Design the sequence.
């Protein structure tokens, strides 16, 4: 099987790179991935697959049925881009102003499409069914829930689900993972601070909510701390603060938005308690009214230990040792793939972009073409193994 998969990957890798560049040129915001999903549908239909379109708006899914009896498993890729202007100067750079694939979702899409292409060719050797899922709205944290609610997982429910994500902290083409939580839980928050507006020349007649908001920002940001082992049990980040419309007027309201990331539910509960207490105390001290709204929550991605063991076995069979690694530390980043792993056994895999790669979510990031080979290979290998009848979660 090793030689068969490698030969198939070699046949399609040049076209895979070209296809990745096509997706890179057309980044689209969450739930607006119309061009992206249209191109995905075209590619899947060219493989002879019956395609389900419009799931949760722009989501796409298809089943690849093997000729041998076996399990149903799922492979998932996210499709949306970020509201970041690209600054890579690549010939295939974003053609959509203010948008870029600066989190690597263009590469995720192509790894899954090309894995599907190979699995279709290997149907005679494939057991069971592989369901490929292309998901909108990962970046705003609601796509996975929307897809699940819309029935994207299909019936019967897959026995396992796999996904991969670009990772700049590994050499290019290296695949890595860990059992247990691999990402953090995330809570999105919004704070409204209500003061008393007035003329900028007479601040003593007003209660300035911007000043109070600045105190809140400082204090809640200080809740980020390191534990005894140097790891962050929680991270509080303020990403937006708004207040006022002109420089000579004190406004009535100010607004703060950000995220709270926690390694587990215990740390999350403790952090939320401290967070609420801190905001209320400052409101009392500053004589302003405060209202906290937790907009949405995303669970951590919990990697099933047995699926991790399967990942190790497939990696040993298909990839040379220098293309395999073990992740020791849980990331404080989040991924809405965690919504799937709450429902069924799942595994998120990191795919190295090269240690000189710019960070994710920056204007200079670009998915590494040299990593497509390993990404496609590991997805095909996992699908071939996990669909076999003797695969059972332990």
Sequence:
């Amino acid at each position: 099987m090793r030689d068969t998969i490698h030969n198939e990957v070699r046949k399609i890798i040049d076209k895979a790179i070209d296809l990745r560049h096509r997706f890179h040129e057309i980044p689209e915001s969450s739930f607006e991935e119309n061009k992206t999903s249209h191109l995905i549908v075209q590619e899947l239909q060219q493989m002879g697959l019956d395609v389900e379109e419009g799931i949760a708006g722009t989501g796409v899914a298809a089943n690849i049925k093997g000729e041998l009896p076996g399990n149903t498993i799922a492979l998932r890729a996210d499709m949306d881009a970020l509201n970041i202007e690209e600054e890579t100067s690549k010939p295939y750079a974003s053609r959509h102003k203010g948008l870029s694939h600066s989190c690597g979702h263009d590469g995720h899409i192509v790894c899954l499409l090309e894995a599907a292409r190979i699995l279709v060719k290997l149907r005679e050797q494939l057991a069971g069914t592989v369901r490929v899922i292309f998901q909108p709205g990962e970046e705003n944290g609601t796509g996975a829930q929307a897809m699940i609610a819309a029935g994207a997982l299909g019936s019967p429910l897959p026995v396992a689900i796999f996904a991969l994500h670009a990772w700049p902290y590994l050499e290019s083409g290296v695949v890595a993972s860990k059992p247990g939580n691999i990402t953090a839980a995330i809570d999105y928050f919004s704070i409204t601070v209500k003061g008393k507006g007035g003329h900028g020349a007479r601040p003593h007649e007003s209660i300035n909510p911007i000043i109070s908001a600045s105190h809140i920002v400082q204090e809640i940001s200080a809740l980020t701390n390191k534990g005894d082992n140097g790891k962050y049990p929680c991270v509080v980040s303020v990403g937006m603060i708004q207040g006022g419309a002109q420089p000579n007027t004190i406004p009535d309201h100010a607004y703060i938005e950000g995220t709270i990331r926690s390694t587990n539910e215990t740390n999350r509960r403790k952090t939320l308690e401290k967070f609420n207490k801190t905001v209320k105390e400052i409101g009392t001290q500053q004589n302003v009214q405060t209202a906290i709204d937790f907009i949405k929550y995303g669970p951590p991605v919990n990697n099933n230990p047995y699926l991790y063991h399967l990942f190790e076995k497939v990696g040993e069979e298909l990839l040379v040792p220098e293309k395999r690694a073990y992740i020791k530390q849980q990331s404080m980043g989040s991924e809405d793939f965690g919504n799937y792993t709450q429902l069924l056994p799942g595994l998120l895999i990191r795919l190295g972009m090269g240690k000189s790669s710019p960070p994710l979510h920056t204007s200079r990031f670009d998915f590494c073409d040299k990593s497509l080979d390993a990404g496609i290979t590991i997805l095909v290998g996992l699908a071939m193994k996990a669909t076999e009848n003797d695969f059972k979660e332990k």
In short: The chain is about 30% helix and 25% strand. The longest strand covers residues 68-78. The chain has two domains: 2-182+300-386, 185-298. The longest helix spans residues 2-24.
